[in-house]
Amino acid sequence: VLNNLLYINNAQVPFISNPIDKFSVGVNTQQYIILHYTGSTNAQSAHNQYLDPAMQVSWHLTVDRDGNVWQLLGFDKIAWHAGQSQWGQGPAAIVGLNKCSIGIEHSNAGPLQEKNGSYCSWSGQVIPNVDVFFDANGNPWQKFSDKQLAASRYLTLALARILNVKDILSHEMISPGRKQDTGPAFLATLNDIRKTYQTGGQ
Q: Does the predicted model carry a pTM greater than 0.90?
């Protein structure tokens, strides 16, 4: 990380410039990393939302299904990814995590619907059966690809250590009942990332 921009192998990752300022006034205190899925199956679709003036949403990094990474905002910027959110209880609770977190989105459709023997995203895109994950209740979700999971693990742990964040969380952990990302298909990876970070492992 240099000047709040991400570098991988000494090269800056592609940056998506937006002519509209989609961030709040102030400096991000970078205490947490919040993991999300985009609700779409590719980075381009998500980035189109980011560039759409009517969509009040932004985040810092995107991890695509092939493992490629993009940056949308500098890490010092307060992005609009957490929304109504809280972490902790009582007087120590943090309400509204945008101001203190880095948002990382993953290209993934999330929960799927079964239609005529196929599994489809909310937009109607058919997801190949090999890419379908079933949760404990038999509900279908899109799987995250192996390259995506590996890239996310490496990226999230490296960034967490550089920024010395307090914790790595999913959107559903800070907005229970309102959000369900990163969902059950990411849960094993999320648990591994959090445990590894908390124990100082690799």
A: yes
